[in-house]
Amino acid sequence: DAEIEVTLSDGRTFKAKILGRDRELDLALIKVDARHLAFAKLGDSDAAKVGEWVVAIGNPLGLTHTVTQGIISAKGRTARQLGNGSGVEAFLQTDAAINRGNSGGPLLNLKGEVIGINTAIRPDGQNIGFAVPVNMVKRIIPDLKSGKPVSRGYLGVGTRPMDAEFSASLGIKEGAVVSNVDRGTPADKAGIRRLDVITGVDGQKIRSGDELVAAIAGRRAGETVTVTLPK
């Protein structure tokens, strides 16, 4: 494993140990042997609202403790919308300037609470940055602390957009249209079939395939969820 050295704002340095990592989110939990360190409180990213002011802190281009401000532009962006990956998670989008070196830095609300961890930008745009919601991080911290592989839910369906023709024929305005069901998966065993429309997970409204992926990926493998399919 790579050796990690942590430098504090007062100049002190510590060797850090990696307790666990989540390759899907490009996150790691590290530990230093120190006491009475200042820390940032973790907030509630689910409660964050589009249009809310946020602050990003990081070390872009080697400029330590750079602070930029912006708003939350959107919630629930997938890795596919970031321009890479397969879309297994839901990210916060912000126009707070994020550059190389910001990754791993906090995205804070105006209470000083961490609501996200800055992770990526769209290189083909301007001020289109993304952060991992802190609630997603809080869910996997026990796995990272234990060193076990991160547990992430899986349903086993593919989805397609709800277009006007589908909406008219099915009589449903929004939801995740099931395009395929993999055999032997939880969805198959539960009786979900092609062209079913999933409109909810545990009472949470599902308006698209991206929202379905985010809802299921936010659960641990082995959890039981209630999936809503209109009759």
Number of DSSP strand runs: 15
| Share of helix, binned | 10-25%
Biggest beta-sheet profile: 6 strands, antiparallel, barrel
How confident is the prediction overall: mean pLDDT? Answer: 88
Order of helices and strands: EEEEEHEEEEHEHEHEEEHE
CA radius of gyration: 20 Å
Strand content: 25-35%
**N-to-C span:** 52 Å
Structure description:
- The protein has 231 residues and is an alpha+beta fold.
- Helix content is 16%, strand content 33%.
- The chain contains 5 helices and 15 strands.
- The longest helix has 13 residues, at 134-146.
- The chain is globular and about 65 Å long.
- The mean pLDDT is 88.
Looking at this protein, list some descriptive labels.
231 residues, 5 helices, three-stranded antiparallel beta sheet, six-stranded antiparallel beta barrel, globular, 33% strand, 15 strands, alpha+beta, 16% helix
